[in-house]
Structure formats: structure tokens, C-alpha cells
């Protein structure tokens, strides 16, 4: 008898929220800017913002001597493909993964790669769509913060599984809340109240969860990895964001996915 897989409650809520965001304001939801509400992002400007994020990260990998040559890239939480297109300018193949079908529709519309990006819907709490040692680079930026902490940590473990030995993870995540009014709201106010304020006061189509992922915790989640650098790269009055460059020096963890 076949079994029906039930999506974890937290992940189902993430799927519902980002499906709403992808249906209502896909580009703004990826790049939240008060001046870009109601369709304010121009397509070319939106994609250029992705190059402005990815190009320095690729240059930093070159500087550190860890950049994979050519290779296959996983863009986790690809949204509307802002970073996928930028990554395709540097690598042979990009797989963009997201939980929101409307976001992926927008990503396919904006695909300027000439066929080198594959956009894939993943509604699972793992990456079992992909086998062990499937990618040379895993890239995710300002995505894990929107997931419940246990799910975010589970995906980091999965990044290590699908990454080839010698491969690289680039993880852009908030390290800490800033000691400002907005930062302290996210740190101390219960999430249901923050979500209500986002919906009612800020008029978000759906709330955007936020939490931190500390450097030490990343090291614990990837025991076979080496953090080559952790750079502060984005400001704002809410969070202190770091971009971690993690090299998988040892053999990838076994099990978990299927080819």
C-alpha cells in the first residue's frame, strides 16, 4: 500500500506564505524595498541587483582560492531567479530550487541564461531530489532566515550531503539582530505579533519570518567543512548579515538522497 507524505507543519506554512508573496509581489518579496512596492522593480534592474550580489562573492572565492572551476551550482531558495541568472554567468549549470510555484514561474520568465538554468519545485524538508555529491557549489543568500530554525538547520546539513568533496557553500545569513528598535522587535516580540504587524501595518501580502543563524552553529552543522571566511556584507538597521564561505574538505556525509 502506498503512503502519502505529509509536509511538516512549519514548512507548509512557509509554502503558503511564499506562494502568496510569489503571486502578489514576486520581485518585491525577493528584494524588499519600500520604493518598489506594487510592481516597482524593472526586470533589468532586478537582475542587475543579483549580479551586484553574486559577482563580489565569486571574486571573494577567487581571492580565497576556493572557487570551483566551471561546475554545477545549487541556488537554494532561488525565488524569481535573481541570483540564478547571475550565477549562470560564472558557472556551467545552475539548478534553482524554491518552494513557491509562482516564484518559479516568474524565474522562468526572467531566465536570460540561454538554457543553463533548471528551475525546480521542492516542497520537502530535505533535498532528496538530488543525490549525494551532486553539486560543486551551493549558494543561498537571505533565504534560511525565513525558515523555522529546525528546518533551516536541516537544509544546511543537506547542503553538505549534496556537495562534492572540495566543493563550496556560500551562505548569506543574519548573524545577530542589531541593537536598534527594529532589531530588538525581531529578537524579543513573539513571532505571531510580528507577523500580524507585517500583515496589518506594513501590508505585506504574507508575513516574512526572520531569525539568525550563528557562525558557530554553522560549523556544528557541517562537521566536515572549513569556514574559509565570514564577511559582513549587508547593513540595514535590523540585522548584521554575514556571508560564509564553507569548503567541504572531507568526504560528504552518506545517505539521505536519491539520484
UniProtKB/TrEMBL annotation:
Protein keywords: Methyltransferase, Transferase
Broad EC category: transferase
Enzyme Commission number(s) from the entry: 2.1.1.-
Keyword Methyltransferase carried by entry: yes
One Pfam family of this chain: Methyltransf_25
Domain Methyltransferase: 73-167
Example GO biological process: methylation
SUPFAM superfamilies attached to this UniProt entry: S-adenosyl-L-methionine-dependent methyltransferases
Annotated GO MF terms: methyltransferase activity
Protein name, UniProt field: Class I SAM-dependent methyltransferase
